[in-house]
Amino acid sequence: MNNVTIIKETSPHLRRKDSLFRMLLDVLIALFPVQVMAIVAYTWRAVVILLISFATMVCAEIVSVLIKNRIPYDGTKHTLKEQLKKGFSAVNINHIMAPLVSAEIFALIMPAQSDPAPVIYIATFVGALAGIVLGKLVFGGTGQNIFNPAAVGMVFAKICFGSRYVYDGTYYVTAVSTGGTPLSNAIATTSPGLPDLLGHYTVVNDYSFLDLFLGRIPGTIGEGFKFAILIGLVYLLIRRAADHRVIVSFFVTFIGLMAIAGIFVAVRVPGVSWFNFMVFQLFSGGVIFGGVFMVTDPVTMPINSPGRIMYGTLCGALVVLIRIFGALPEGMAFAILLSNMLAPVIDYHAWSSQKITVKKIIWIGAIVVTAAIIICLALGLGGRA
Prior knowledge:
The protein is an all-alpha fold. Residues 4-8, 13-17, 170-180 and 184-204 have low confidence and may be disordered. The protein has 14 helices and 4 strands.
C-alpha cells in the first residue's frame, strides 16, 4: 500500500498553483475600478470611510494575532517588549491582505452620509469592528470563519445606525435623496387584493436602465457602478479567483424567480412589464455587487462543485423571497448570511462529493421550484382576494 501524506489546511482550499496572497490581491485589483468610481463620485467622504474601515479591520486582525501568539505563562514575568516581539513574529502579509479585502467590501456597501454627519463615521467604525470580530476573529481568524465579515458588519451597522443614513445621489445626480436606495425610494404601487406580506412593488419610473447601470442613482458608495463591478468580474474570472459556478447559479436563479414575480406584478400593476420589473430588481441595490464580490467568498461557501451550485441557487432564491415578501427592500446581506449558515450542511460528508449526481440536481431544482411555488401561490392567491 502506498504511503499517503495528509496535510491539514484551513480554507480557502485552492485547487490551482496559486497562493492565498495572490488570490486576495486579485480581489483587491478587481475591486479597484469600483473604489475609483466611489472616490470620484463621493470624493473625500468615500476616502474617509475607506480609511476608517481599513484601519479598524487591519488593526483588529493584528491585535488578534498578538493575543493568540503571546508568550504562555511559564512562571517568568515577561516584558511588554518581549510579548510584542513574540506576537509580531507570527504576523504575515495575509494578516493584512485578508482584512483589507473585507474592509474594502464593507466600506463600499456603506452610504457616504448620515444625519448628523459624524454618525456615518461612527457607524463605519462600529460596523467594521463588529464585522471582523463577530464575523471572523471569534471563529479563529482567516480561513475559519463561517460568516462573511463584510455582510456581518453591514447588517450590524444598519441595525444600529440605519435610521441616520442619508443615501446621496452620485456626481451624476442633481437631486439628493434622503429616504433610501432606489428599492425603497422608487414608486411603490399596491394593487387592491394583494396580500400584506407582499409589502410593496417597485416600479421603474424615476430611473432609466442606463442610470441604474452607470450608477446615476442614490445608494451606497460602491454598489451602484455596475459597469465597474462587471470589469472586476471579468478580471476575477480570467484569474480564476472567483468560482463561475456560484456566480452563474446565483444570477440565473435570481433572474428566473424575479421574472416569475414580474409576471404577477405586470398583471396587477398597470404600466409595469415583467421584464422592466426583473431588470430593475437586478440593477437596483447590491445584487450585482454582492453576487460578484460577496457570494463568491471562498471561505464561507461550500468546498465541492455541486455544493457551490446549490449554494449560489439558495442565495439567489433567498434574495428574491426577502425582497418580495420581507419588510426590507434589499435583502442581499441577509441572504448571504443565511446561506453562509447553511454552507456547512451542504458540505456535510455524508452527502458531499465532487460528482454532480441526479440526486444533487434534484436538490438544486427543489430549491428553485419551492421558491417559485411560494411566489406563485402568494401572488396568485393575493390576486383573488
